[in-house]
Every structure is written in C-alpha cells, then in structure tokens.
Fold:
Amino acid sequence: MREMRIFLAVVLGAALVFTTMFAQSVSADVLGNGSAITDCLQIGKITSIGDKQLTIATQFEKKSKNYTLHLLPECYVMTARRGEFKKFKELKKGDLIAAYGWYKDGKWNARRIDILDKNDYLIKRLAADAKAGVYYKHER
Amino acid sequence: MKRTVFFSLVIVAAMLIGVVPAQAKKTILTPFDKRDWHVIAPQDSDAPLRDYAILYDAGGVDGAVGVIGIPSMRTYRHIRCGTDMHNFPFSGSNAGNNNGTPDGKYFYVSDKGADTIIEVNIQTGWPERIFALPKPFGIHHSAALSPNGKYLWATGELTGHMLKLRLSDGATTVLDIPPAPSAPDYPDTGRAGKYVFSGNYYHSAVMVFSQDPFKLIKEIPVGKNPHGTNVSPTNRIVAVCDKLSATQSIIDVEKLKVHKVIPVGAGPLHNQFDTLGKYNYISCFVSDSTSKIDMQRFQLVDEFPIHYRVGHNSIAPDNAYYCSQNKFSTGLFTPTGIVFAVNFELQDIDETSATYGKSVKLIPVDGEPHEGRQIFATYIQRWNTGKGQEMFSKGYDLGDVHISFGEKGRPGLPANIHPQLEPIHVGNSSRGWIPRDDGKPGITKEGDVYVVRVKGFSYGYVPRFIHVPQGAKVRMIYTNIDKAAGLTKNPDVTMGLAVGGYYGPRTFLIGVRGFSAYAEFVADKAGEFEFFCQHFCGPIHLEMRGTFFVDPPGKQASLSVGDYDEISKQEQMLDVREHEFIVGTNKLRNTLNEGHEPTI
Structure:
C-alpha cells in the first residue's frame, strides 16, 4: 500500500512537471489578454521622455501597462491626422501616441510614432468601447 | 404703457438677433495643420485643390501605376512601368497596416505579364531599376517587405514558387512549394521579423515561412480558395479572405492556427486594416459590398454597398476614407473604345461624419487596377523649383530623420543618376483585332505559320496546353466565347490571354466580345510558360490558366528544360543602353546567405 502511494505520488509529480514544461513550451496566449510586449503596435499616453526613448501607459485596455520605447535611428514622428512630420523634442508628456515597431533583444524598438488626435473617430470609438467593456487587444 | 414699450423692445431685440446673418463656417487650423506647404487644412469643398494623400494604384493591363489624389479622386498622372502591374509595398518598413511606414524613396511594383519587379522612385516619379527574377518563376505579387526594409518576398503563382529578394542587389532565394498544383498568391510579412504568410488557393491553405532563414514551416488549412492574406498592424493576427467560403479566417500569429472564422459578405477578396487595427475592411466581390469587421469583437459590424464588382481596395493613411477599386462599369460611363473604363469609389468611413458609409466619389479609371496603397502627400518633396540638385546630394528630412539616396549611388545604380526608364509595353509582335473567328480551337499549320486558336470563357481556356517548336512563327487567335461573366452576368466581360514572362509583352491579347484578338510573333526562346487571364472576369478569374510550351529541337520544354538563363536577363524590357539598370537574373539565384540575412 505504501509503495502504491509512493508510486502514485511519483506519477502525479512527474505529470505535474511535464504539464508545467509543456505549458511553458507552447506559444504565449496573447489574443484576448490585453497588450503584450511582443505586439508591433502600442497605443498609449507618454508618461516620460528620455534620450530617444519614451515610456507610455497603454490606453483603452482593461488594465493599463507601461512600456519603454527605444527609437530606432530611422524612427520618425508624425501627426496621424495630416501626416505632418514633427521633431522628437516636440513630443510632450500626456500626448496620446501610436508606436509601430518590434521587440528585439529585450527592447521595444520604435520605427514610427504617430501623434494621435483625441477628436479622431477611431480614438472616440476605442474610448467608448472601453467604457462599455470592449477593451482594446482583448479580442473575443 | 411701460409694459408695452418693454415688450416691444424685447420683440425688436429678438428680431435683430434673428436677422444677424449666420456666421460662415470657418476652416479652423489646428496645431496639426501648421504647415509645411502641403499639410492642408480641412476644407469645406469636396474637391480641394490640394490633396492630403496620394493613392498609387497598380494599373494591371495598362502597364502603369495610377497616381490619384485623396480625397479629390483626381488622376494626377500615370507612371509607365511594364505590362501587367499588380501590387507593391512602399520602401521603408512594413510596420503598420498595408500602407506600411514609407521613407518616401521607392515602391516596388510586380509585373505579372513580364515576370519582373519594377522599382519606382517616388521623388522623381519614374522607374529606376528592374529586378529580373530567376526563371522560371511566374510572379503574381510582391506585397511583402521586411520590417527593416531590406528584403522583399514575392509569390511565383504560375509555377508554385516563393522568393526572397535582397533589394540592394537582386540576390534571391527561391523555394519550390509542392505538391502541384500549387499557387502561392497574396503574401504578407509578420511585423516582428519572424514569419511570412501566403495564401495558396490550390491548397486552400495559408503557408507559413520563417523570414530568416527563409523556409517553409507549415500550412494552415483555411476556407476555400484563400485570397487576400494580411497581418494586422499589431502583429497579433493574420486575416485571410476565404474567397469561395464567404468567411474570414483569423489566424493567431503566436499559435499559428485558426483562432476564429467570421462570416462576411460573399466573395471576400482583400483586407484593409486601419492604422490602429480596430477595423478591417474587406472587399466582397459577389455581394458588391464592403464588410467592416471589428477586430476586438471579431464580428461583422457594418456593410457598405458599392457599385460594380469590387476587387482591390485601399485605405487613407488617416483612416478617413476607403477606396473600392471596382472591376466593371457596365453602362456607367461614356464609351471610349474597345476596352471599358473600370471605376474607383471613395467611401467615407469616418464614423462621426454625416456621410459615414456613403460613396462620396465615383471616377472612371483606365486599365484594370489591382492593389492600391496610399501615402501622405508630405512624403513627396517639391523638387521642381530649383532644389532638384539636392536629390543627388542632400536628400530630404522627415522630421528628425534624414533620407538620402546616397552621393555615390548604390549597387545596381550608377553614381549620380536617377534614370527615367520606360519599360517596353509591347515588343517584337504584331497585334490587333479581327472579326470574330469561329474556327476550331487547336493548332493548324498554314504555310510556315503555326496558327493557334484559343477560346476563352468563364473560367477556362480551350485548348489548355499548346506546343510549338522553337523558332516557329506563331499566329495566336483568341476568341471570347462568353455571353456574360460567370456568376455576375456582366455582359461586357473581357477575357484576356497573356503568356507570362518572356512572351508576356508579345501576347497580352484582349478578348472583347464580338471580336477576335490576334498576335504574331516568333517563338525564339524555349521553355514552359503559363498563360492567364489578365482582364478581371469574375471570382474564378485568377484560376484561369493554361500552358504554352516552346519545345527546343528534339526535346519537350518543361520547367527544367528551356532557355531560362537567357530569358532571366529581361533585356527585352529596356533599350540596350539601359541594360545596366536590370539587376538580379538567374546568376544571383539562391545566393542569399540564409540564416545571416536578418530582417529586423
């Protein structure tokens, strides 16, 4: 009986270990869970500005997340509404931006920054949807 | 009395207020509109003199790329490129939606008829280089740029191949995609530098490749005959238009499997995500509509009717307008000749606009346009007021970022030259129309001429296989035997026949009802060449195929027997003095150092 208990404990323990390993080896469950660092588009408000880097707090999600964006040398800044090019130094804390780029070697590399217009219909739509419980990047 | 005076004064005051003219609606400049010269104010006029965006459309059979203003929908010009232009990315990066993140230097447009990719300089507005793809290939699309902008992927729809191209010199890696029949079609690249996705309509699957090293990873079964296959700007999903299933398959980019299938309009063809990935707009050919999908809910949330059989589509860079690029114009416009104009329809997609969901412009368009992409006008500099010299020396600025063409030129382009290439549209053949020929389909010999009679219909050819000996004088007579387009019943259906590649510029037959089209040429290069319909004729148009074999002496031509090294030089496309602007060819086939060609 004791051997049986030990045997069962070993089997269950092994099953637990394998389950954990398997769970780590399969792909991340990104869809439906809000923004991920691996996303290639982040929408957020600028919370701090450094030397060619920005920190944003994501918007329209269930829970805001903070990401630091490192600007690639070829990254430009423009207005999303009419495509007017801006200087990096013209960005301000509190600006709502969309950043396009990719995650590589532990850094989120920005290739383009769009300054969003809060009066744009898409921004109004994202805000209204979030208020109603349909959050950005929480796909159903 | 006092009360009467008081009330009278009140009434007079009220009347005075009433007659004060309403203040004219002012155009208010916001900080967003502070200009450089072409950042324009929102205008009350629906036909502004200056457009804030430009739509480039690959014009298909007119061999040109159209340049159209948004929102005026006026055609500014055409850029002559080749024979059968299909689609393109802007140079820069693929970050974002289909319009990408341009640097304003080039776009790369595929020429299905001549089997090449043309590099067009956006700042000069002329072709500068021709990428001569390794043969046999049979390109359809070159839609996919790498995130770092150094590589391009193209689909060899006509031979079942995929290709990765290095833009600096035209070096390639070519993959064979079995099992036959195989038709890799619309590709798109993951924005994170990891995957390339491409529909394969014969396999009813989406193929997944790694970007570096470039190799096939898996096929994901989707709906019947997948068409547009596009990665969202967030890089979280791939949207696939299941053309014959009236659904959209949503592929999870992390798990590489179908996450959801959404019912959409009938005959879904192409996707346009807005820049934030909130909505995806799908052109639906059979239901004559635009399906609007909410990408948070994965639901169809709206549908806009459009006129006349939409094919491709494009979206404005500020998401304010959507352009349906339609394939037929039955009865709509004044006749201008044998080939009718198709039409573009601009739709207002601003949800706060009074005309939301309505078509606000409809214009005739020549050719049979394929993919369109839009770019803010601010990328294109004003070179013609004396500062043209700077294009060679200084370049231009996009905010903090300096863009330069390089003072010393670059591989494949001599120093200090921006060539003005005009690739040959139709060369070394004689073509025209004759009264409808009702001769039996097949090959007969009349004197020393091989007379090839081909009949075209929705959706096929008779005969499908044609053999002529190398060196033969060929007279190809092509007759459209349809009474109306299959499924859609448009009575003005035109059936095309183009032999892809070397014989593309020599054939390109336009089968108008009531006429027969002919081409006479010498079949001087051996090989196996797919022929296809270059005039959109209905939902199965892409699947109209046949094969033209030019057999060398004592052998039968195949994809491995033919003059492919010679053909790959594409020298027929340019004047002999311009051959230095042709790069690539079979010499650079499979010369990329895969695994060491990073894409981010």
Summary: Chain A has two helices and six strands. Confidence is low (pLDDT under 50) at residues 20-26 of chain A.
